[in-house]
């Protein structure tokens, strides 16, 4: 085996271990923490995930493209500019995020953990993206493993053998240590790259140009992530913190599908679609899109079948009557996740062609749909209102993206039936 093949295998292994560790963590938390604690953990995770976009504005997408156009002697000025923007965003949004605790959305006892974890997650996320951009994929995967996988595996093992570790503070402390280790590793590697340009003045005009590109896509991201954040808070308001623990467990199980699709299908498919369309290679585009569709449908169907078979025995193993009592939530959340997963096929088909507007509009429409639909469902079925709202929302998004894809894609780029025998 060559060195490059060994590195690729190790890279895939690290990504796989990260996914498995995160997947197992949610079940061990459900086993060893009280449902209310799992509910709080779920709220904290989605709130940090949403706040990350406020601290970064997805500006990395602009910076990455600019880095690849320039010599390494100029990179420092670009990274300095992104750092300056983040400093401004920190100054604006960190104080505003205190409202989460002032309004009682999360308990004050978690405020310290929230801000520490938020900053660590943001810095390590940006470092990981930078490492990927400069073709340090293996190190980026190691940073991701330390940030999201290693500490989860350690917590899972310790909670199993050491009763004193079965607390939310222990979990959050391990998360912080994992993030710190990832941050130090990323900083060490970047410091060894001999990047120049750090002494140049901050180019605010360049930052402004980047914001014009980043903000429209950011709005779409905030809208769809808003659905995945609002759902937890709304469910808590309707059902209470304990039953929210069941929701977090079932959503964690269902959303594992997206993690596997992202790592095993989407990450390998959409770069090829972009390349094929930019080169006007019709055959490659159609074949790539058909493979993306088939792989998504097959993996989603297999995952759904296995999940429906395993959920009963897993709940028995958890030995928490509350989870068994509310097992009817799971099929609806699984359907919502399946709809979201399938919508990513036309999503990447549009993205590869540079059609960002229908993606942006569909995401904004999803949030605008979720709020009234969930409210209407809550009048009759309060415990199922949020899952039914998600199903309706993601069905709308799927139909919107499918319509946009067929409307905006040239006919000869979407005649999938002519390529089936080639896949």
UniProtKB/TrEMBL annotation:
Keyword Transmembrane on entry: yes
Keywords carried by this UniProt record: Cell membrane, Membrane, Transmembrane, Transmembrane helix
Any single Gene Ontology cellular-component annotation: plasma membrane
Protein name: Polysaccharide biosynthesis protein
Primary residence: membrane
Superkingdom of this protein's organism: Bacteria
Localization (cell): Cell membrane
Protein's organism: Stutzerimonas degradans
């Amino acid at each position: 085996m060559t060195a490059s093949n060994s590195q690729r295998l190790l890279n895939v292994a690290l990504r796989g271990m990260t996914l498995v560790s995160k997947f197992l963590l949610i079940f061990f938390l459900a086993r060893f923490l009280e449902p209310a604690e799992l509910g709080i953990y779920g709220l904290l995770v989605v709130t940090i995930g949403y706040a990350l976009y406020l601290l970064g504005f997805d500006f990395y997408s602009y910076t990455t493209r600019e880095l690849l156009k320039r010599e390494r002697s100029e990179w420092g000025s670009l990274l300095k500019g992104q750092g300056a923007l983040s400093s401004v965003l920190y100054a604006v949004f960190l104080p505003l995020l205190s409202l989460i605790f002032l309004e009682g959305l999360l308990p004050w006892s978690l405020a310290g953990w929230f801000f520490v974890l938020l900053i660590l997650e943001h810095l390590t996320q940006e470092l990981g993206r930078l490492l990927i951009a400069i073709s340090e994929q293996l190190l980026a995967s190691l940073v991701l493993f330390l940030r999201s996988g290693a500490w989860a595996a350690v917590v899972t093992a310790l909670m199993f053998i050491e009763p004193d570790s079965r607390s939310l503070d222990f979990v959050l402390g391990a998360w912080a240590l994992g993030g710190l280790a990832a941050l130090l590793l990323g900083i060490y590697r970047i410091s060894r790259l001999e990047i120049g340009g750090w002494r140049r003045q901050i180019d605010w005009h360049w930052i402004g140009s980047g914001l014009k590109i980043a903000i429209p896509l950011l709005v779409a991201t905030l809208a769809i992530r808003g659905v995945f954040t609002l759902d937890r808070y709304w469910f808590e308001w309707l059902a209470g913190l304990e039953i929210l623990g069941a929701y977090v467990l079932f959503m964690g199980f269902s959303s594992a599908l997206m993690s596997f699709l992202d790592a095993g299908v989407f990450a390998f498919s959409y770069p090829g679609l972009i390349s094929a369309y930019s080169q006007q290679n019709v055959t490659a585009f159609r074949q790539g899109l058909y493979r993306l569709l088939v792989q998504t449908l097959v993996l989603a169907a297999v995952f759904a079948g296995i999940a429906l078979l395993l959920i009963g025995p897993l709940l028995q193993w958890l030995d928490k009557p509350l989870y068994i009592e509310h097992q009817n939530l799971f099929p609806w959340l699984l359907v919502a996740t399946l709809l979201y997963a399938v919508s990513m096929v036309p999503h990447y088909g549009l993205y590869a062609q540079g059609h960002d507007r229908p993606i942006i509009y569909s995401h904004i429409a999803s949030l605008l749909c979720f709020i009234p639909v969930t409210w209407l469902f809550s009048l009759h079925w309060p415990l199922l209102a949020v899952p039914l709202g998600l199903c309706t929302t993601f069905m709308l998004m799927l139909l919107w993206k499918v319509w946009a894809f067929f409307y905006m894609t040239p006919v000869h780029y979407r005649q999938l039936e002519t390529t089936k025998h080639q896949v």
